[in-house]
Amino acid sequence: MPSAFDKLASTRRHVRSGGPLFSAGDPFGSLYGVQGGFFKTSAVDGEGRWQVTGFYMAGDLLGLDGIGAGRYQLTATALEDSVVAVMPYPLDLQCELHGTLSREIVREHRLMLLLGSMHAEQRLAVFLLNLSRRLQRRGYSPLEFHLRMTRADIGSYLGMTLETVSRLFSRLQEQGILEIEQRHVRLIDADRLRAIAEPA
User: Fold this and answer.
1) pTM of the model
2) Closest CA to 178 of 145, 152, 137, 139
């Protein structure tokens, strides 16, 4: 976890698996630095359906969506028992945290732009490679990891049905690109996965 979180945190908060860190419409008062565990954010779309908007792990910031409107626009839910650093807003923003804020915004913006122009198999490949890189930056294996989110969550985030996600995972496994057992993923041929994500 970036040291800026430690400097600015007033307290720690534990969130049980399945529990909300905050809900859409709650008054905004704090940003949250994930110290351990995994979260998803979601929002209601124009047709009243829940849409997953992001996944967050240790080192990520949650709550940025509440700064402008004074209320959280998303619901953040723990995907496993998790702990966050609570940072009351407004903050004494230091350069280190400015960098974290900027990287978070740019990362999400780039990913959503990429995903919007891709076919289904590309979207899943980009998602897996992005998750792999984020885990590697935090000192975890980039080739073998446990998916904290369900396939339905992945489908919601990528704009695909659960059936499509399951079919694509099966296809990638049949092609020898990865192995998946329930939520445990092992990337066997990351180069071929990159070739799907970034076709020539």
Assistant:
1) 0.84
2) 145
